[in-house]
């Protein structure tokens, strides 16, 4: 039996896509290559507080993911979840209806199924954090799994994006936090942390000043004119990551120079009937933000619903 939709990726955007697809009564499958759902929010920073959700002042990432899963995994859903499953091959089949193509998808669990449409919510792909040093120091963290480990300690945080600022805000409640960024400008507002966090700009990591027993005790940072020594108990590095998109044979969508998927105003990719949403995509006004990903999912699903169900207007709301 041909299903309506395949959702690739069960991170935050994928889970919300699942929920909205339920409201449209679409049938299909959502797959996740990892053993757990939630993507980066659950696997990279489960303890981090998320602040940019409307109506919610703050929520832990792992709790937010659990809420998304509960909202989507309802008894009435016609979409099945598969974890620890990836795609081996996609074969396009020419048809006269829907988007003029259906897609036969072969999975790593040796099953296969045909879908009328696909929405890619693969997130950033394979995540490899940009490192501070080549050595694996015991107190240098690229992922924070337990924020209690930083209580009453001197914590240096490197980075100027949302994650660095969010961690500075969260940990400053119980630790002495220094936020270090190579530019004077941050990618997110810092007004909420100015009173409780020491902010050092424009500084870059220079060298390890003192270390013992695989623990860094002090570092030197440099602003182009002078050096400054910082005493540390723990270091959190939020320089971002190098991203390797998950290759899918037979689903070669157009990407830009940063390997992001190009989409149109309907979130459709260069392949008919194949859409994308979330961190995996690019368009001129795109911003990496959970709300953007959710909106992109709604736009893509609205187009899928219009075509598959021969509607003249989109659903009035959910």
TrEMBL record:
Binds 1 FAD per subunit. Residues 4-281 form the FAD/NAD(P)-binding domain. GO terms for molecular function: ferredoxin-NADP+ reductase activity; flavin adenine dinucleotide binding; NADP binding. InterPro entries: FAD/NAD-bd_sf, FAD/NAD-binding_dom, Fd--NADP_Rdtase_type_2, Ferredoxin-NADP_redctase_2. Signal peptide: none annotated. Keywords: FAD, Flavoprotein, NADP, Oxidoreductase. Its EC number is 1.18.1.2. Its cofactor is FAD. FAD binds at residues 13, 32, 40, 45, 85, 279. It is an enzyme of class 1 (oxidoreductase). The keyword Flavoprotein applies. It catalyses: 2 reduced [2Fe-2S]-[ferredoxin] + NADP(+) + H(+) = 2 oxidized [2Fe-2S]-[ferredoxin] + NADPH. It holds the Pfam family Pyr_redox_2. The keyword Oxidoreductase applies. Belongs to the ferredoxin--NADP reductase type 2 family. Homodimer. This is Ferredoxin--NADP reductase. It comes from Spiroplasma sabaudiense Ar-1343. The gene is ycgT.
